[in-house]
Amino acid sequence: MTIAAIHAGLAYHTRTLEEGPFAQHFGPLFDLRDLASADLSDLPVLMIPCRTPGHRLADHATRFQAYIEQGGFLVVMGETLPHLFLSGVEFTPEPTNYWWWLNPTADLGVSIALLDHPLMTGLSEADVSWHVHGTLAIPRGGRSLIDWRPDVETKPASLMIEYELGRGRVLVTTLDPIYHHGSGFMPATTRFLRAFLPALRAQTNSMINS
Amino acid sequence: MGRFVFLQNTAEVPGAMMQPPNGHIIDVVDQYVVHANHLQDADGLLLSQHLDEHHLGSIRPILQAYLAGGGAISVNGPVAKPFLDGLGAYVPLKAGPATNWLLRMADPHPITDGILADDLAYRRGVLGFWARGGFPVPDSASALTVLVGGDVPADMVWHPPDGGRVVLHPGNDVWFVHKETNSAASFFPNMLNWMTEART
Predict the structure, then answer these.
(1) A54: exposed, middle or buried (Cβ count in 10 Å: 0-12, 13-18, 19+)
(2) What CATH number corresponds to the domain at position A47?
(3) How far apart, in whole angstroms, are the C-alpha atoms of residue A88 and residue A184?
(4) What CA dihedral angle connects B162, B168, B170 and B175, to 10 degrees?
(5) Fewest CB atoms less than 10 Å from the CB: which of A4, A7, B35, B191?
(6) Chain B contact probe: residue of A51, A101, A185, A186 with most B CBs at under 10 A
(7) Which residue among B55, B80, B132 sits closest to A15, beta carbon to beta carbon?
């Protein structure tokens, strides 16, 4: 089972979803402008890739909610403004420090919160550490898979949450690996996708079989 | 002073569009509603790296007609699905040392007037911010900047055979650095000036 995804026509979507080593993990792809007429009901998993314009997805909020409640698995990647199209998601933008890594001893403060989670087992801390664009509140009954703690005095906030809704499931992250990989910079994001995409497919298959 | 159209696809409009330099006027138009009438009086059209290239392909006749009428287009980003006749997809440089991303300036041009190659290539001492590859060189195109590794053009100005002018930049949107404190900040205002003069 491959990962169904929305394709917003962005160059970095094309480079990741249609070209190169990760294209094998994706399909079918739905053009963002055709989303209103797309039948999502039988998709085991649907990804909204990084930087898909969230304000254009707001009109589809009801359909996303129905898709999840009826047993779908919606995976929402970073820089998509998920609160605009997912009811109950609380997103707090964070001023991005693009230069933290210039200090060789610096630590961005990102860590894997659930080391034994099937989506996390192939990832190291270095593979999830590039930029912090914002944080997500953990919904009731949900959990954080990736934490961010800028300093020891600050309580950890989440960069990736997972929760159940109806008969389905939602994964939301503020990390934006598809943008960076598809634009040809930030090697950590390529490593992230190399581990995350096969794990997502495997987990989707295990959900289908359970 | 020129009048420009910026196509918006992101939720927020870049700051550079809200405060255009040199008295230029920039009208922000939603990508999905843009029409030939929006471009009728525009000196230039600004196309960001964050646009829907499927949609741009669907309005290719509008873009070609605008160029044929003498318009100017700024194309930004590593384009994956070309949307203009004669434009090819971005090709990254082959893997190699970061020094391949060093730039040198090509022949003098108003867009690059006063700009130092290293101010484009480096940000905070880090190399590779301006361009890491380029477009296949169209006929009637000339280089503004050249990637030292591979000796291939990065920025180009292009005069398509049916008319108009195109500025090709194969990296992050050129207005991304409009607040830099070095000469890189001049690229965007220089480009707007040149696009205006090209029209008049």
Answers:
(1) buried
(2) 3.40.50.880
(3) 34
(4) -140
(5) B35
(6) A185
(7) B80
Would you list the DSSP string of A125-175?
GGGG-S---EEEPPPTT-EEEEEE-SSTTSPPEEEEEEEEETTEEEEEE--
Backbone φ and ψ of B31, nearest 5°: -55, -40
Q: For chain A, how many helices (H) and strands (E)?
A: 5, 10
Overall number of domains in chain A: 1
Tell me the ipTM for this assembly.
Answer: 0.96
Cross-strand bridge partners of residue B26: B4
Please tell me whether residue A140 adopts helix, strand or coil conformation.
coil
Q: How many residues does chain A have?
A: 210
Q: How far is the C-alpha of B146 from the C-alpha of B192, rounded, in Å?
A: 21
Q: Which of A14, A33, A102 is the closest to B80 by Cβ? A: A14
B93, B133 in Cβ contact below 8 A? yes
Task: Spell out the domains of chain B, with CATH numbers in brackets.
Answer: 3-199 (3.40.50.880)
Give the separation between CA A133 and CA A78, rounded to whole angstroms.
8
Which helix (H) or strand (E) segment holds residue A207: the answer is helix A187-209
pLDDT tens string, chain A, 210 residues long: the values are 899 999 999 999 999 999 999 999 999 999 999 999 999 999 999 999 999 999 999 999 999 999 999 999 999 999 999 999 999 999 999 988 888 888 888 889 999 999 999 999 999 999 999 999 999 999 999 999 999 998 889 999 999 999 999 999 999 999 999 999 999 888 999 999 999 999 999 999 888 887
